[in-house]
C-alpha cells in the first residue's frame, strides 16, 4: 500500500519520473479521509529536477477527487505536465468550490492542450459562478473558437 509520505517522497525525488496517477492516489486520500474534509488550499508544484515526458496529461479525472472538498478557496498546479480541461470541467470546479478565490493552472509552464476546449464564454461563465474569485491564472492557454 502506498502511503501519503511515500507519495510525497516520490513526487519530490530528483530522479523520479512523474506519474499523474500518483496525484489521483493522493487526491483520493484527501476526499476519503475526515482529516482533510475542511482543506482550504491545494498547491501542487513539480520539482524542476523531476524528469518528465511530454506525453503526461492531467485531466479532470486527475482532479475529480478534489471536487469533494467544498472548502477549497485556492487551487494551484505548477507542473510541466499538460493540463487538459474544457468548459464543462471549469463549470464542475466552480460548482464544487463555492469559496474559490484563486485558480492557478500551470501559470508558469502553460497547459499545452493541442485541441483547446475552453472558450471565452466558458471562462465568463466560470467567473460568474465564482463570486469570490480574485485570481484566475491559466498559463499559455489557447482558447477554442
Task: Tell me what you see in this structure.
The protein is built from five helices and six strands. It has helices at 4-12, 20-32, 60-63, 87-96, 120-129; strands at 41-45, 57-58, 74-78, 82-83, 102-105, 135-138. The protein has a four-stranded parallel β-sheet with strand order 1-3-5-6, with no helix packed on it. A two-stranded parallel ribbon has the order 2-4. The longest helix is centred in the N-terminal third of the chain and has 13 residues, at 20-32. Mean pLDDT is 74; it is low at 1-15.
Keywords, separated by commas or semicolons:
single chain, 145 residues, alpha/beta, two-stranded parallel sheet, 6 strands, 32% helix, globular, disordered N terminus
